[in-house]
């Protein structure tokens, strides 16, 4: 249908146009807080030291320039991908982040998988057995999961499954005896398969399981509530009753009509889900020594590595915006009504 | 030949505030090729009765009595048997076409799903051939098969609903306020369409409406429902000429009289089904109420040929 | 006559909300709300009366180090020989203070801005919505990290950070509520009577909007506590010597093999408190959102 495709294209363009101001607002906020806020960020970060080191850092960061010069310079650097050098590692922040991004992607994708699976299960059980014991239990489980501090949950998972049962290692992405597979995607699970190192693959998966469960199950609590609320509405929808009246089998009515329609608002809320996921990833990576961007942020905080923190935050923000645009476009593709 | 025979049908809903009796010992018959108009105010249980025939009431509903159709008693029939009947032998069309089609499904998929549900082995070409035939019958251009429901107007969606109802040439069509949410011109088109289809396909139709005008025009038999009870039944012509039940009289009077330009209405409100009045539920609003009316519900009598009424004014 | 009708409509709306809420006390939603409130009040009680409730001085060495839970030390002792139960009781003060303070700040900023933005509309409204939505869509913890890294540790500073993260939530809900209430009949009626804008806003819109404040609070309070705990865990929230649940978890995370109780109990307290807050919001949502109520007859 050319008409449908054209409307989808128009929607994508419109959505991208809206993204511009949003990115600018976020970048301005980060700039404001990390550079222009009253007080002296370098002093705050280096503590009481204000000797030649602080002075040279200020000069290196251009903090003696007028604010608008700093702002324009800041934006220019972001769009050319230059985020300065980490004070601690002296590497380019952009390179540091590029190196760590695949780890974060691997973790978040795996967690999302866990979250969708467990969340849908809980939510569907709840909605189809409304107000019965199964519903009450599922809702309770979902509420507790979503309200569990991720870092605590991760530590307890380590205690139970790594320390007590010794099923998994308690941190890192790969055991020391395995060589890191040649980089193709940077995702160890995929790279090891590409390289044909099957035992490395098993080891990478084993390392991924605990952090992905930690982050995924917490997010599943959020998902479950969303799925339940929307299922309750779609199960009562007129088209569901109409489908029943046409003799469609209950399972087909459930999956093809009720569940599918309930997924529309759920996937619309994906942007919010990703925000929670990205917040959780910072804590999960910190607990499991998972060398991704979240752990990079954690290390930057502990080391008071200011350019690294700023760079990581900016990249994180850009990834978020990029994902939310992708999600919206995906939704427009699923739900024909959005495009109009 | 009697197509549908309902006897002593009761439907009640469980609610937190207690049971709600929506249909109370209702008797109805529909002959093949005949339209029965079921009329009543909103909330009188007429929609529940329509849905009870196809047994698509929510889990909170309890159904007793008998509904004989297609050689089965639909009250006691098992779910798989009921499913074979729904959409194949008996179809239902609803009041609000805007929300009755799945917004995420193209028209093509609605038909394909329906045909596959009843004939799992049907191949797509054959299914589409039948779809085009019924779409043409309801005057929807078949080239719009791949569009989504939101791309159609309300009247067109109702035609699509009707086309879906006709795919398997059902012997019974339950039309629950099929035109209430449509404008007057579209209403006439849809009802004429239904009428011509009824004759062409030899269907029995249960036309549920609050609009006496539609009954006068399109139905042969009629039944008047009040607070879950069938108050009066008979041929449309006779009932309009000589309404027996005071409620029927009130309903007919509340249509504007063009000669005197007067509009009468029935005083009072329809009763709360949770706490209906004792005896005949109409007695608080009835101009001819007698002491006996507050006691028990009046027995159904047959004061004229082909007519039944439940009122103490007509003792057996 | 018209004024009477308008006043009646307004009163009956508030009255209905209260009646519905009381009437639900036996339903699941009612149990959730009342149970959640009871748990939160319990934590408020032990926090306020910590000096009397806690069996030991939280900062004193009262035992040999790292004892497992026992009848004298229900939650065990830590490496410094401090009683963990007492530290957990004192630790309730931080999250509760932060939540109360941050909610007050977020409300003080988000609500009036949302009220005016929704009421007057226009270009400023669209701009504010864009800014607030951008902040809202951003991962809350990351935002908190950025702000906290700059303004430094401390209870008041953390409250400011959390308020900054949740002000957009107050803004959004209140702005959208005002925008929808504005379209409703009784406001139109009031405007038709040529009442001044201030009167319409304060007499007719504010009371209706005020209903949504407890809902926003209960929804964002649990998240606020988790964010505060997360900041503490990352070492951005508080000076190190204050007893705080998140900080305790972070401090003994490395010693989990030797003394699980040092991590387990403070974290458990966070879960109980946040889940109780979530129950309140879930219950309120069930009661106040008629869309989700069961249709009993059709």
From TrEMBL, chain B:
InterPro entries recorded: AAA+_ATPase, ABC_Ni/Peptide_Import, ABC_transporter-like_ATP-bd, ABC_transporter-like_CS, Oligopep_ABC_C, P-loop_NTPase
GO biological process, alphabetically ordered: peptide transport
Cellular component per GO, a single term: plasma membrane
Chain ranges of the ABC transporter domain: 6-252
Chief location of this protein within or outside the cell: membrane
One Pfam family here: ABC_tran
E.C. designation(s): 7.2.2.11
Domain of life: Bacteria
Subcellular location: Cell membrane
Topology in the lipid bilayer: Peripheral membrane protein
Molecular-function GO term, any one: ATP hydrolysis activity
Catalytic reactions of this protein: Ni(2+)(out) + ATP + H2O = Ni(2+)(in) + ADP + phosphate + H(+)
Family label: Belongs to the ABC transporter superfamily.
Subunit structure: The complex is composed of two ATP-binding proteins (NikD and NikE), two transmembrane proteins (NikB and NikC) and a solute-binding protein (NikA).
Protein name per its UniProtKB record: Nickel import system ATP-binding protein NikD
Species whose genome carries this gene: Eiseniibacteriota bacterium
């Amino acid at each position: 249908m050319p008409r449908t495709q054209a409307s989808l294209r128009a929607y994508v363009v419109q959505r991208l146009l809206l993204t511009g101001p949003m990115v600018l607002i976020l970048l301005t906020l980060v700039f404001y807080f990390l550079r222009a806020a009253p007080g002296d960020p370098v002093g705050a970060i280096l503590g009481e030291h204000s000797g030649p080191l602080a002075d040279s850092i200020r000069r290196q960061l251009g903090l003696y320039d007028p604010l608008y010069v700093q702002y324009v310079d800041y934006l220019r650097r972001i769009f050319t991908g230059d985020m300065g050098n980490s004070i601690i590692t002296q590497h380019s922040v952009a390179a540091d982040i590029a190196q760590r991004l695949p780890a974060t992607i691997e973790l978040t994708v795996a967690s999302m998988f866990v979250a969708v699976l467990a969340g849908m299960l809980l939510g569907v059980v709840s909605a189809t057995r409304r107000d019965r014991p199964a519903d009450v239990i599922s809702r309770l489980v979902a509420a507790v999961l979503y309200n569990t501090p991720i870092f605590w949950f991760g530590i307890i998972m380590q205690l139970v499954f790594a320390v007590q049962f010794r099923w998994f290692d308690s941190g890192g992405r790969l055991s020391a005896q395995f060589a890191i597979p040649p980089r193709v995607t940077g995702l160890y699970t995929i790279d090891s398969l590409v390289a044909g190192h099957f035992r490395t693959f098993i080891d990478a998966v084993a390392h991924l399981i605990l952090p992905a469960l930690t982050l995924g199950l917490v997010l599943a609590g959020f998902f479950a509530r969303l799925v339940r609320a929307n299922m309750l509405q779609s199960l009562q929808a007129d088209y569901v009753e109409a489908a029943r009246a046409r003799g469609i089998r209950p399972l087909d009515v459930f999956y093809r009509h009720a569940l599918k329609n309930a997924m529309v608002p759920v996937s619309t809320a994906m942007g919010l889900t990703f925000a929670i996921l990205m917040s959780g990833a910072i804590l999960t990576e910190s607990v499991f020594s998972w060398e991704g961007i979240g752990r990079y942020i954690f290390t930057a905080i502990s080391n008071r590595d200011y350019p690294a923190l700023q760079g990581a935050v900016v990249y994180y923000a850009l990834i978020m915006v990029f994902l939310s645009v992708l999600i919206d476009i995906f939704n427009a593709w699923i739900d024909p009504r959005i495009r109009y | 030949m009697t197509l549908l025979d309902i006897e002593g049908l009761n439907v009640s809903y469980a609610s937190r505030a207690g049971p709600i009796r929506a249909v109370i010992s209702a008797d109805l018959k529909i002959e093949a090729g005949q339209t029965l108009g079921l009329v009543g105010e909103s909330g009188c249980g007429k929609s529940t009765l329509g849905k009870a025939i196809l047994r698509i009431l929510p889990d909170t509903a309890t159904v007793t009595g008998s509904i004989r159709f297609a050689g089965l008693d639909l009250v006691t029939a098992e779910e798989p048997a009921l499913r074979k009947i729904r959409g194949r032998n008996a179809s239902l069309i609803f009041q609000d076409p805007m929300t009755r089609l799945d917004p995420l499904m193209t028209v093509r998929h609605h038909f394909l799903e329906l045909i596959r549900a009843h004939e799992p082995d049907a191949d797509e070409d054959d299914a589409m051939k039948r779809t085009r035939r019924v779409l043409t019958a309801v005057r929807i251009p078949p080239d719009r098969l791949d569009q989504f429901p939101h791309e159609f107007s309300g009247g067109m969606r109702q035609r699509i609903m009707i086309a879906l109802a006709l795919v398997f040439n059902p012997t019974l069509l339950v039309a629950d306020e099929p035109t209430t949410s449509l404008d007057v011109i579209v209403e006439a088109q849809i009802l004429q369409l239904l009428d011509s289809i009824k004759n062409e396909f030899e269907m029995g139709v249960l036309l549920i409406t609050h609009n006496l005008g539609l009954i006068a025009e399109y139905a042969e038999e009629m039944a008047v429902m009040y607070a879950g009870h069938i108050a009066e039944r008979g041929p449309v012509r006779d009932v309009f000429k000589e309404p027996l039940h005071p409620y029927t009289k009130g309903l007919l009077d509340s249509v504007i009289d063009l000669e005197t330009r007067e509009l009468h209405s029935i005083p009072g409100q329809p009763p709360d089904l949770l706490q209906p009045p004792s005896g005949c539920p109409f007695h608080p609003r009835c101009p001819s109420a007698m002491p006996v009316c507050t006691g028990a519900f009046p027995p159904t009598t047959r004061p004229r040929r082909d007519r039944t009424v439940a009122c103490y004014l007509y003792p057996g | 006559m018209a004024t009477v009708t308008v006043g009646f409509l307004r009163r009956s709306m508030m009255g209905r909300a209260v009646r519905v809420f009381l009437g639900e006390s036996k339903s699941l939603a009612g149990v959730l709300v009342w149970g959640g409130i009871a748990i939160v009040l319990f934590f408020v009680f032990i926090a306020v009366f910590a000096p009397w409730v806690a069996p030991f001085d939280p900062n004193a060495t009262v035992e040999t180090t790292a004892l497992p839970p026992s009848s004298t030390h229900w939650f065990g002792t830590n490496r410094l020989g401090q009683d963990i139960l007492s530290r957990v009781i004192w630790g309730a003060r931080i999250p509760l203070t932060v939540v109360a303070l941050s909610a007050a700040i977020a409300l003080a900023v988000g609500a009036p801005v949302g009220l005016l933005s929704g009421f007057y509309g226009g270009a400023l409204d669209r701009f504010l919505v864009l800014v607030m939505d951008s902040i809202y869509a951003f991962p809350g913890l990351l935002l908190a990290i950025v702000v906290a890294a700059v303004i430094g540790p401390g209870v008041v500073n953390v409250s400011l950070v959390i308020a900054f993260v949740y002000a957009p939530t107050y803004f959004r809900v209140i702005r959208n509520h005002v925008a929808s209430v504005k379209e409703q009949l009784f406001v139109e009626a009031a405007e038709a009577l040529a009442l001044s804008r201030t009167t319409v806003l304060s007499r007719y819109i504010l009371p209706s909007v005020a209903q949504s404040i407890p809902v926003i609070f209960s929804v964002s309070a649990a998240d606020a506590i988790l964010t505060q705990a997360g900041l503490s865990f990352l070492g951005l929230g508080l000076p190190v010597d204050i007893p705080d649940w998140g900080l305790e978890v972070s401090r003994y995370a490395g010693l989990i093999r030797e003394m699980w109780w040092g991590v387990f109990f403070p974290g458990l307290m966070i879960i109980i408190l946040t889940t109780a807050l979530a129950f309140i919001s879930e219950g309120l949502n069930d009661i106040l959102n008629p869309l989700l109520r069961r249709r009993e007859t059709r």
